[in-house]
Design a protein that fits this description.
Number of domains: 2
Largest sheet: 5 strands, parallel
CATH class of the largest domain: Alpha Beta
Number of helices: 9
Strand order of the largest sheet: 3-2-1-4-5
Helix content: 40-55%
Strand content: 5-15%
CATH topology of the largest domain: Rossmann fold
Distance between the termini: 61 Å
CATH superfamily of the largest domain: HUPs
Amino acid sequence: MLGIPERESRRVLGHGSLPARALRVCRGTLAGLGLVLVLVTVTPVDAWWAEILEGHSYSADGDVLIVLGGDSLTDGVMGWHSYVRADNAVRNYREGGFRFIVVTGGSPSGQPVAAAMADWMRCHQVPPGNILVETASRSTRENALYTRQLIGSLPGRKVLLTSDFHMFRARRVFSKLGVETLPQPIPDVSKRASYRTGRWSAFVDLVTESVKIGYYWARDWI
């Protein structure tokens, strides 16, 4: 190239040019996506990740079972996370000798998810007088804040029931607010991760939850 040294010419037209850099970025991105695809589809990375967030301690019985609401559909019907929590709460109420179930979780609009979960429990032979419902909370931290007010006069051991991937953040939020609980994580991500068709939804939940953990840590909520 006239007037430009050969080395400079190669820099302009070769590796240092904008198209070349863009191509390298695209290749790196595709390679990264391919690696993630293989990890999620073929390896048990979801199960390992969920096990870390779940922890290794587990309480099977107590006096007050605190059940955290999860997702809900637009018509007030329980979503998957809420369903598995409500279903396991009924089983654990029968087997663990609990005197009360506290269900916590509101909704931006429509029927609060805690109300739908409580209806499910009543339909499965949990006495209505043994279910306390909190419907104002919109987040895990608010679950803990409003539940603390609700259970203030209830004696006995408090057991916290939520999905496996949610337990790490939930238990620490309750503890930070002075509500000491025993953990009862239930299979959610770990169950879906055992089926190839459920691994990607489980992976998305794990990534989302990890971002929330970082946010709560930054706010000093855990």
